Amino acid sequence: MPRTAAPAVREVLERAVTALGGSEREGQVAMAEAVSASLSGEAHLLVQAGTGTGKSLAYLVPALVHDKRVVVATATLALQHQLVERDLPRLIEAVRGVEGLDTSYAVLKGRSNYACLHRIREGVPDDQGVLVDVPQGSMAGKVLELRSWAEKQAEAKGSGERDSAPRHTDREWRQVSVGHRDCLGASKCPFGQECFVEVAREKAHRSHLVITNHSLLAIDAIEGVPMIPDYDVAVIDEAHELVARVTQAATDELSAPDVERAARRSQRHVDGPEADDLADAADALRDAMTEARPGRFETVPADLSDALELVRDAARACLSAYPKAQGGGGDEPDAGMTQARGTVQEVFAHAERMAAGSDGDVLWLTEGGERIPPRLCVAPLQVWGPMRDKLLSDKTVVMTSATLMLGGDFGSVATSVGLKPSERAHDEATPERSDTVLPWVGLDVGSPFDYGRQAILYVARHLPPPGRDGLVQAQLDEIVELVDAAEGRTLGLFSSRRAAEAAAEEVRTRLPHLTTLAQGDAQLPELAAQFVGDPHTCLFGTLSLWQGIDVPGETCQLVLIDRIPFPRPDDPLMSARQRAADRAGGNGFMQVAATHAALLLAQGAGRLIRTTTDRGVVAVLDPRLATARYGSFLRASLPPMWTTSDPAVVRKALARLADAG
Prior knowledge:
Elements: H1 9-19, H2 26-40, E1 44-48, H3 55-65, E2 70-74, H4 77-94, E3 105-107, H5 117-122, E4 124-125, E5 131-132, H6 140-155, H7 170-173, H8 196-205, E6 209-213, H9 214-221, E7 233-236, H10 242-249, E8 252-254, H11 256-266, H12 274-291, E9 295-296, H13 302-321, H14 335-356, E10 361-365, E11 376-380, H15 384-392, E12 396-401, H16 411-417, E13 440-444, H17 451-454, E14 455-459, H18 473-486, E15 490-493, H19 497-510, E16 515-518, H20 524-533, E17 537-541, H21 543-547, E18 558-561, H22 572-583, H23 588-605, E19 616-620, H24 624-627, H25 631-635, E20 642-644, H26 647-660
Parallel strand pairs: 1-12, 1-13, 2-6, 2-7, 3-6, 7-12, 14-19, 14-20, 15-17, 15-18, 16-17, 18-19
Antiparallel strand pairs: 4-5, 8-11, 9-10, 10-11
């Protein structure tokens, strides 16, 4: 049934902001109007909106006003949770009574994020594929608690989502959930009518807004696996992470134990020798992986190539040997057999892809460890092609983040997602959309923060360039002096766990009156709460802190970055992408390594100023930011902070902030 004529975006935004007790922000209005224009037109939109702009409201309001279903995709569960638990309910309450708005919404996640009632009620397959009803060992109590929680969710018609479950580990959650290959399917499952996933999908089909994540969006649009109801437009928040998430969704792994497990589970269901042949192929794969050197393969060793083909062929034969019918004459389907077959199917698909040796894929071997077997990994060399052909050509997409302009321009991010600089719309002309041209608009709506007054960028130009052996004494001395001046209040972002722990140990020893926490001392939420609770605290960690922590106020007045966060030289995927760019006539270092570093550097620096009253220093202990030719590109990716290389000036500024606190 057609909706009443939609109200103007600006009118709805004004009403929402007023109802929520806010005030009009120029950047938020500009973004909302640009999002509305993009959703109604054919040009894609890249919009950079600094922290504090209110960008969630700036895209949710146009999405509600739009006359067709809108998909909103986030990178992190934290933002998804914020949208669903806080932003959307408050917005819907604020615009209640406005005619022409469909405020229905639903959340969609991957299947493994929901509890599986069949697995809970019928049991979990053991290594032979037999369904075991009672969990064994130390995790039995937690699994029983999760089962009880899921039954209560089913009774109360709850979501059954992992986020709302009692605290648990990944291993424990796998006992009450399934991936898509293990699922019987709603039509065959005796609990299909109650299935949390099916209920979520049904709600999504009835909803105007569908909130999902980058990975599910990629699986639906790029891999062609239908996961999301039909839609024409999508809003991608945290879009700076899109390429990494799409790559992650398209990455497959295979190990000898994976193949062995598939063989063992098949032995109950396959009458011929095919399961034993698959077990033999697992042995061949293990031997070949033991002989191969860890790292990226320019040319796959002959033994490993032969082993992959052996696994592929044995898995194909094993699949063919499974009985065709999954329970006949009205009998219940054999869940153990379905899940065992799914395991073999996954082994076959991964081995087939790895054996193909496609120029579009990168194959590498991980080193493994005492308890972790080595694994073969395969990932796409690039994702911009599939994103352009299968997402951007079919849909209209809005991408937003606080960090989309790298080196002061949208070009790097646009190119990485499949948009061409030549297709960018300018004031004088907008290219017409066609099968070969995808016009896009780049918009920077600025920030409500006055970075020139609120923040100092300190580049420790006097320090030696960082080496391969971790932090040197000069860097440790610099860290201690800065932390001492700030009297704690420090978030340390380090390139490795070893560097973070070395810095934490140095500060603990020399400044024992402060509390110094290191990532790994406890769960991140617990560490963050302790950091926020006491200003005289330092928190040192690695990548998850660069993007995953929000600490406004005097808690964080110093952000320490030990070195420019270039990818590791031995990173198989990044090194392959850099080399491919060089071969294509580009500058692989700038297109891949420097772009990666600029993005992380901007995200890390963004931890400092989170409100209009925050003040502080971003200290980069890597002189290359000031001295190297690429330094200007990296600095142009950062907020416009006042910049200095004088350590005395910075220590005095930090001491004044500490005294004021």
